[in-house]
Amino acid sequence: MPGLTGAMPELPSHASPNYPPRPSSARRVSSELDLNHVEAQSPPPPILVSPAFTPPSTPGTATPPIHKGIRSIPVDTTSQKPPKLLDQLPQVDCVVRARIPTVTGAEMFLHLYQNNVDNKEHLAIVFGPNIRSKSLDAPRPGETELDRMIRGAYTGRLHPGRTSSRVDPQSSSPHNTSTTQSSTAGPGHSSPLVRIHSECYTGETAWSARCDCGEQLDEAARLMSLPSSQDGVIVYLRQEGRGIGLGEKLKAYNLQDLGSDTVEANLLLRHPADARSYGLATAMLLDLGCGGDAGIRLLTNNPDKVRAVEGPNREVIVKERVPMIPLAWKSGGKRGIHSVEIEGYLRAKIGKMGHMLE
Ligand SMILES: Nc1nc2c(ncn2[C@@H]2O[C@H](COP(=O)(O)OP(=O)(O)OP(=O)(O)O)[C@@H](O)[C@H]2O)c(=O)[nH]1
């Protein structure tokens, strides 16, 4: 960000300066907009106060390995009332995939999807070698081997002079890709770790301490990059602002500064508290071979997301849930986000949206 270099200390890529905690700019005020006087006026419980602000940074660099293993909780949604979902999953098509080396040394494959319900570029960030997209690997009429490699439908690695998308002579274990084979991972494969992430420009790019979206994205990438991790997928859905879009989210922020909580602000703008859907995520996971009995381990605290991701006919099965604990809570306040705003944000998630964060 060249324009900012004069005003800020020199930054590592993707990182942001370590601002001191801001004064309580979002101090709650009495207002006719305040639909929740008691909660909004009372001080936040100490457990919600997170005393240090760590802005979003490059995946995998920000979060210390506090727990050695990944703690997960078994999930059984069969007895739950199914949420209202569309009868049919959308159609998705992975149009291109590319290798992304990251500054931590971990590599991931970014998959870009098109679909038949919106014209947004939803993404799947794939960690590990076993997960492949069926729609990407499927042959396209008339395409050459170079065409296939350019759109990422190759096995192994690309290198100068490579001519076949299916066989890499420089790879120690070259193998053919049968384009008709299932893309599910091989034997010994345990359920992949999955995060369904909704876009948050403010939290992931603009260093906002109003929410922990950037921290959650970093943490998901870190967990999927651990040497002990097998396969992982971050499905990155373009449903900014819980589906209301960035412009409306910014209006909601102004309402929050006027005293509303995150749910009230959405409602005052005549949006649902949460306008998101997860059919695209389900369809993308199926395309990536994450359907069926093997199930997935889902990184979330959001009870609605768990069942919604499974799809109308439980095409994807959430076997375990891995809680996303705010970094400030896990680290005893040494790391993580510190702001008055995030206290209100987490309080509304727990109190009003039923998030499973104790
Ligand atoms: N409308 C609105 N959206 C917000 C606000 N803060 C963050 N978001 C959006 O919320 C979405 C992230 O959702 P989260 O609630 O963190 O995640 P979740 O999917 O509900 O739950 P977890 O899986 O447990 O993290 C992103 O689309 C953000 O842009 C806000 O104050 N208002």
TrEMBL record:
<dbReference type="GO" id="GO:0005525">
    <property type="term" value="F:GTP binding"/>
</dbReference>
<feature type="compositionally biased region" description="Polar residues">
    <location>
        <begin position="162"/>
        <end position="185"/>
    </location>
</feature>
<keyword id="KW-0342">GTP-binding</keyword>
<feature type="region of interest" description="Disordered">
    <location>
        <begin position="156"/>
        <end position="191"/>
    </location>
</feature>
<dbReference type="GO" id="GO:0009231">
    <property type="term" value="P:riboflavin biosynthetic process"/>
</dbReference>
<keyword id="KW-0547">Nucleotide-binding</keyword>
<dbReference type="InterPro" id="IPR036144">
    <property type="entry name" value="RibA-like_sf"/>
</dbReference>
<comment type="pathway">
    <text>Cofactor biosynthesis; riboflavin biosynthesis.</text>
</comment>
<keyword id="KW-0686">Riboflavin biosynthesis</keyword>
<feature type="region of interest" description="Disordered">
    <location>
        <begin position="1"/>
        <end position="69"/>
    </location>
</feature>
<feature type="domain" description="GTP cyclohydrolase II">
    <location>
        <begin position="191"/>
        <end position="322"/>
    </location>
</feature>
<dbReference type="InterPro" id="IPR032677">
    <property type="entry name" value="GTP_cyclohydro_II"/>
</dbReference>
<keyword id="KW-0378">Hydrolase</keyword>
<dbReference type="InterPro" id="IPR000926">
    <property type="entry name" value="RibA"/>
</dbReference>
<feature type="compositionally biased region" description="Pro residues">
    <location>
        <begin position="42"/>
        <end position="58"/>
    </location>
</feature>
<protein>
    <recommendedName>
        <fullName>GTP cyclohydrolase II</fullName>
        <ecNumber>3.5.4.25</ecNumber>
    </recommendedName>
</protein>
<comment type="similarity">
    <text>Belongs to the GTP cyclohydrolase II family.</text>
</comment>
<dbReference type="GO" id="GO:0003935">
    <property type="term" value="F:GTP cyclohydrolase II activity"/>
</dbReference>
<dbReference type="Pfam" id="PF00925">
    <property type="entry name" value="GTP_cyclohydro2"/>
</dbReference>
